[in-house]
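Might I ask for a little of your time on a matter of protein folding? Here, with my thanks, is the record as I have it:
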Amino acid sequence: MGWLSWLCLLFLLSSTCQFNSTCSSSNSSSSLSSGHLCHPDDNSALLQFKNSFSIDTSLELELLNGTTLYSNSTISWQKGMDCCSWRGITCEKMTGHVIGLNLGFGGLQGNILSNSSLFSLGHLKRLDLSSNDFRGSPIPSKFGGFVSMTHLDLSYSNFSGPIPSEISYLSNLVSLNLSENSFVGLHTVNLNRIVQNLTNLRELDLIEVDMSSVLPDSFKNLSSSLTTLELSWCNLQGKFPESIFHQPNLQLVDLSNNYNLTVYFPKSNWSSSLEVLDLSHTRISVDWHHLTRNFKSLRDLYLSNCSFVGSYLAFLGNHTQIKLLDLSSNSFGGQIPWSFFLNLESLVELDLSGNNYVGQFPEVDSNSTGIASLYDFSKQQLVGPIPQHLTFLRLNWNQLNGTIPSWLGSLPSLVGLELGRNQLSGNIIEFQSHSLSWLFLRNNKLDGLIPRSIFELENLRQLDLSSNNLSGTVEFEKFSELRSLNHLNLSFNHLSLSFNHLSKDTWPQLLILDLSSCNISEFPYFLRASQNLEMLYLSHNRIQADIPEWLLDLGKNSLSYLDLSHNSLTGTVGQLRWKELQYLDLRNNSLRGELPIPSPSTSYFFISNNQFTGEIPPTICSLSSLQILDLSNNKLGGKIHQCIGNFSQSLSVLDLRNNKFHGVIPETFSKGNVLRNLDLNGNQLEGLLPPSLLTCRELEVLDLGNNKIQDKFPNWLESLPKLQVLILRSNKFFGEIGIPKTKFPFQKLRIMDLSYNQFSGLLPTKYFEHLTAMINSQEHELKYMGQGYYEDTMVVTIKGFEIEMVKIQTFFITIDFSNNTFRGEISNVIGKLKSLKGLNFSHNKLTGTIPPSFGDMSNLEWLDLSSNRLVGDIPKQLANLTSLEKFNVSENRLTGPIPQGKQFDTFENDSYSGNTGLCGLPLSKTCGAHQLPPSSFQQEDDLEHGNGFDWKVVLMGYASGVVIGISIGYLVLPNGTPDWLAKVIGRKQRRRIVEITQRRA
């Protein structure tokens, strides 16, 4: 089922409940109207209204009970027939006037204009136009003319513009639902009119109506008859009036997802008839003491991601009537207090997901007699009875361990079980109850075979067993026999799948299928019958074949996500025919030929690491919704279309590295663009940098390395507020860098690589003084650069190796100015860059001494000053750099003793070669008595090392042009000491030969 269908479900069910009386009266009116036929004016108006729209009869909605509703509400509306007998019509018995019109989920497509015949139905009391598509048209002010209207539902119908003030004229309204439209914001004045004039209002639903400019106090005068108030996702801010909770008839309040909304519950003694309360994702402080004392009728309580005052368990014993309890995403820790939850006699749904709970499930007490009870062995206490009435249990995103208890499989009413992203181990239990519809066990440590009972769950709709250690051969036809199953995920296990016995007409109801890393060697042919498929993932398999024609026809009108990456696909790709495609991933295959262009609906297009050739087709300019475009590592050539710069209103990532593009960088980056990563490394681009790059205010990564760009240093980039990576290496940049033009240049810069250019003049000391992120980085968590579906990748020189980092940790901070013609002395100010991991000034013309302040860069892991004209001693302060793994001062004019102890005991001769005045170990030249080298008495066990990295890297070959792929990185030992796994043998061969040392015990 598509997302739109799911959204419609809630409101359709609501509408069905609201219009139950309407439907029954409609049936009775048609039987009693033989002498009172539909009023002819109303009959004509209804037909004219129907004919003003196109009707999408292909829409369908499958309800939880298996019933399917179709969008054919008006199919019975035929000229010459009594309109009182039409579906969705209710007539007044005596006059024949239409008083009820229910076209919810009716498939209507078009605009409602002010001259619509709808407004001639002056006797309407109930109107439901929810879940249609009115194409962004505004709500006509003539809706205010329905003076008899009691129920108005315009939700989920793609209205836009302002909410007309004339809605407040409907003084008889009992129910108003304007939820889920694209309204321009509801202002305080209009809201006050609605609140003051609609004095009979019992139900008010304004979900996702923008109220960012509304004063929440406007709600304090709502009708005392109010029973339902739904205000989720409304951008409400400030303090919500506490008096709303004094409303005598209020039964449902939903204030969720108003992230800046606060409220203070009344402190005096009072009571409320409230049955449903949702405060999730707000800034409302939940005071359990007052909440539990005053809300004694609560049945459904949603408190996801809230702030709590006092213990959240204090209330549970007194609220045995609670049926649904959501405490997800609250950072609760420790062991789950099972005895509190499982003793809620009426509890049917429990959501504790997204917390930090640890420990194991309780087990059945083998010593109990009579009614089976659960026992918590960790606490050595009886928990309570097995929750026989439980229908939904959500414990995903915690840290639970142990095995899944067998009693969960015997719960007779269990419909949904979500245990994903924990540390559960052992086998999956057998499920004895056939009520289960949703089962999510992904990202655990479960092993063994898929249990036989899963193939007998005839009501199973969604099954996710991905990212475990499941094994064995699975006869796939067993899944296809589950006629309700529409979502299946078996990815990233150790399974082998057999499709031998699947017929070609199998599984038409399938919507989502993920078989990534399932040891598949061919395209599953049975998919030909799954023409409603919405998502298909077959990545990380062994499919070695051309993309078949039938796959290009699969789900032409439904497929939105397709991932065929990391296979061995060959051949050319034909015309892509998927009309609704949003995500296409063909990375890491052997596809060739011209670049295929997907539909204009595509937002994410990954096609890197293939063998595509030729130019980018001009049809790429039609992809106006693109957010990520990754064409890297192909053989594409020609010029980069100027239209690509126009994508920048939606485009976040443009990755064209390692192709054969020539010409200049597009100059069309427009104001207001959202470009975050521009990677053009490894092409043949030339000319100047386009000044329009300055409009890219969201830019974090700019990688233009390995091209032929000939320009001065672009100091105008220093004002980009979010720039973190600037790579200009191996181009033809020239001249002096100079001094900053702004007060705070490159504030967030973390990686700066200007190597292999023709820069000259003095080192840019003034820039070094203001590199805030390098001076004191606040990043210490394990986070990677990038967002969403894309993680930033780049090639950097680390400890003498060119390494492709496919993930870049945010605390990775380096400067590389090597292989230029910088001159003059190195300033002491560089010692302020205490967050630096690597510094490379090699192969320049620098003079003077090594600043002692380098000893302050406590995070430094490699320092390369080789091939310069430096003189004087190696400062003894460098011995304080306990994280230093690579040190190179060769080919200079240094003199005196080499510091001893700590890290300096690990450096070899090639770190110092070419400095004839140096003495001391590891050199064979000894120092005189007056030249004794400084030593350290600190033991190696006391060394504090910086954070280690989790890199997957690729060493770039040189003379042979061979790229050596190898997993190389840091090994973080139990004491926190990182051990570099690559040891270089021989200075001349250090970029070719890597010896992986054994891990230390």
Remarks:
- The chain has five domains: 1-184, 185-316, 323-460, 544-711, 712-792+809-948.
- Residues 323-460 form a domain with the Leucine-rich repeat, LRR (right-handed beta-alpha superhelix) fold (CATH 3.80.10.10).
- Residues 796 and 802 are 6 Å apart (CA to CA).
